[in-house]
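User: For my dataset I need records formatted as: sequence, then structure tokens, nothing else. Please produce one.
Assistant:
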Amino acid sequence: QLVESGGGLVQAGGSLRLSCAASGSILSRNAMAWHRQAPGSQRELVALITRGGHTNYADSVKGRFTISSDNAKNTVYLQMNSLKPEDTAVYYCYGSGGDWGQGTQVTVSS
């Protein structure tokens, strides 16, 4: 089970940190990721972190978002800085093996 938190409403240029708490060890998974889905759009990969700590980002968030993990807490984070209105979406946590969280809304006002 994956449970996201940390979404909300923020002005453009602001920051938010999303958290994804897993019910089991995240080290048992090859990778954890954050996806997002804006209204009328397909769900897209935002950031990914592998068990070994390698990270990958969508071009649209490189330099602004940072994915990290705390293995002791079985939690994955997404630090989002310099937010833009186009970052508005529901953000979902994903664990390799096919598990999805329920999503958390991020709204960035201009």
